[in-house]
Amino acid sequence: MAENQEMSPVEMKVARQVEYYFGDHNLPRDKFLKEQLQLDDGWVTLETMLKFNRLKSLTTDSGVIVAALQKSKTGLLEISEDKTKIRRSPNKPLPEQNDEYKDALKHKSVYIKGFPLETTLDEIQEWLNGKGTIENIQMRRNLQRQFKGSVFVCFETEESSKQFLERSDIKSFKDNEMLVLSREDYHAKKAEERKQFKAETKAKARQDKEQQQKHAEEKEMGLLLDEQTGCLLKFSGELEDVSREDFHELFSGHGKIKWVDFTRGAKEGTLLFDGNAKEAFEKAKEAYGGELKIKDNSVTWKVLEGDEEKEEMKKIIEAQQESFNRSRGRGGRGRSGGRGRGGRRGRGGRDHGRTQYQGKKTKFDSDDEDDAPAAKVAKTENGS
């Protein structure tokens, strides 16, 4: 861009704007301007140029455009003899838009964040004035075309961008603290942020799923506890030689046992009946002459009620689910009938429950996915 002391402020802005239109960043993507170039060997009338809104906001006088370009030292543009047309100099052809070119752009670009959202392109240009020769400023916008408060600035050379990063006067803008990074460092930072975000999202999804499953299990547990009341019969005594099968045999014909919570050698346990535990107990006791023993051992029997019943039922339901999950993990060949504490295979475990420079940009593979798409090429305004 032109930066010449002999120019007036307006002429500097005009030259910079017109050279942007014909520059390496805008021209390859500017459908309208490229169509105009085809009409007259690359020449475009100043009358046509003055239809561009941003240039028109700077001047409506074609003479100012001619004067500004005559004073420019870039040599990018030629002026026709009658001073009514301009074109890009044939001696400065557009670079080939290949990977090498894109890589060069990346190495001479910097990322700057911290501008207030209402900041204009003119204000950013003014802040950057004198800090290096700039080829392009890309104001980053969201999908609603609102300024995000950050820009990519492409300098004339990689060395210029490095010198800019070393400056001490780029740390603030209107009392706002600025984040300034090379484009490479920016992409590395964003890649790390995306990686962390992905991990956090995955962890949260897993946590949410576990929480939903927990709530579902708690709800199901509550329903089961409400449904299965009066079904538990607790027993205690000297039961060293007693197995789960013995309980099934003892109550055979008197009540169906769904689950035996007992480990061989223990002194107590609980029976879950598919029906009323008290009725099953009374029938069995009557059948055995009024005293219900098991293998000639005296046993104390108690039908559980209230909170004691709920707590024991909860343990049994959890044991059923654990047994189900364990057997499913082994292809269904697992042992059942208790809480995984040993003992012989029992019949109780068969039922498991229910259980500038704006609008034009070169897209890099590592660019933000949330960036808004480039403006339609027909609207080639530097900041409008």
From TrEMBL:
Residues 192-217, 321-384 are annotated as: Disordered. Pfam families: La, RRM_1, RRM_3. One of its GO terms (biological process) is tRNA processing. The keyword Nucleus applies. Its main location: nucleus. Residues 327-347 have a biased composition (Basic residues). Residues 4-96 form the HTH La-type RNA-binding domain. Gene3D superfamilies: 3.30.70.330, Winged helix-like DNA-binding domain superfamily/Winged helix DNA-binding domain. Residues 108-193 form the RRM domain. PROSITE patterns: HTH_LA, RRM, XRRM. InterPro entries: La_dom_prot, La_HTH, La_xRRM, Lupus_La, Nucleotide-bd_a/b_plait_sf, RBD_domain_sf, RRM_dom, WH-like_DNA-bd_sf. SUPFAM superfamilies: RNA-binding domain, RBD, Winged helix' DNA-binding domain. Keywords: Nucleus, RNA-binding. GO terms for cellular component: cytoplasmic stress granule; cytosol; nucleus; ribonucleoprotein complex. This is Small RNA binding exonuclease protection factor La. It comes from Amphiprion percula (Orange clownfish).
